[in-house]
Amino acid sequence: MVKIINTVLCCSLFFILGCKSDDDAGVTPPTTQITNTVTSISNYGGSRNDAYTAVVATNDGGYIVTGYTQSIDGDITDKTVEEFDYWAVKYAADDTLQWSKTYGGSQDDRASQIIQTTDGGYALIGYSKSNDLDVIGNQGQKDFWMLKIDASGSISWQKDFGFSGNDKGITLIQTTDDGYLLGGIIDVTASGGLGTDKNLQINHAGGDYWVIKLDASGIKQWRKFYGGGQTDTLNDMIQTPDGGFLLIGDSDSTDVDVNNNNGGYDFWVVKISNTGTLIWEKSYGGSEIEKGYHITKTNDNNYIVVGDARSTDGDLTNSKGNADVWVLKINDAGNIIWQKNYGGTSFDSARSVITDTNGGFFITGSSRSLNIDASSNKGQNDVWILKIAENGNLKWQKSLGGSQIDFGYGIAQLQDGSIVVAGDTTSDDFDFPNNKGFKDALIIKIN
What we know:
Blueprint (H helix, E strand, L loop, with lengths): L2 E2 L11 E2 L19 E8 L5 E8 L5 E7 L15 E7 L5 E7 L5 E8 L5 E7 L14 E7 L5 E7 L6 E7 L5 E8 H4 L15 E8 L5 E7 L5 E8 L5 E7 L14 E7 L5 E7 L5 E8 L5 E7 L14 E7 L5 E7 L5 E8 L5 E7 L14 E7 L5 E7 L5 E8 L5 E7 L14 E7 L1
Antiparallel strand pairs: 1-7, 2-3, 3-30, 4-5, 5-6, 6-7, 8-9, 9-10, 10-11, 12-13, 13-14, 14-15, 16-17, 17-18, 18-19, 20-21, 21-22, 22-23, 24-25, 25-26, 26-27, 28-29, 29-30
């Protein structure tokens, strides 16, 4: 059942000193420099929990966001049950709402990523606990749930993958053969080792990286999992020029596929072939906890990986606080070109990075700091946006928030050069005074 939101979502305009971004979704923006000024901040949702988890620029100059909604009021007019559903909202370049739709069943369904596909439509990934309405084929608790929708948001097809445990879809890309690679976490123990197309002679346990390759019609071609005896969480992927893939996330395993763990959780990067064969894997970090969230390709054909870090040793040389934004530049073989910490003396994290067509990178996440690299904090977590140069030097940063928890999850640069940051907020003051409920979806626009 496709659910259509008919109301026009309202936008609130504020002038604040700003943030910024860029997009790696295949859209080439002009070479004009962003002036580092926020032009609008908009809350969306109802009286319950609503969030945007990702944003991508679209080929028509606009953008599309995804996330989840629990509300049945406010901006959400097509739901009657307060369970979470996927939520996709399409905007024109001038921020005009073009359409908004929700998808799901009667249980908990939450989208984490969206991409524009080569046919002009879109694909979404997340997890679903439902087995009714839009969701067909749930195998247990949480399953990977992929939706293919057309340019107007109507469902073309859907696919559910999982076993009896909690298998969580997190990321997807369209591959060069017009198929798809889905990524996330598999509960290996609950699956009985059945989530991989190979003879399993060794004991994986807990959660592993899980990738599923589909053709253009959504038919499964192969599936593999990677990890060890502890917890391995896949958060993002990118296809490499040789047709293979880099998988990034974090791991605290020290066995099976994981070698040279530095202690606690590390950034874990895995290179696989186009058929899923493990080519190499590397752990990056120190003796504490490092969590990798996102990867983008650089203009010189290397890669930037971002997340957060708590260590003061190992691969980290410039810790600034309890947790820092940590950025690694690596080459195609996984060797570190440079690494940098950003933050203050509290907790700071990066969730998304994109390459700026004018050079350098834009990063979004959150900050609880108000010193060193972070110039202000309104209370608890603020949305934090950074611009760094090609060599990693910090060019500027902006904190936007209220007295509660505010987070940036996705960032995109549009064809006109403007920047969109997507996230959520529980604040009702300072930079975010228009809260509609407990947690609102959030759009920040910068020109």
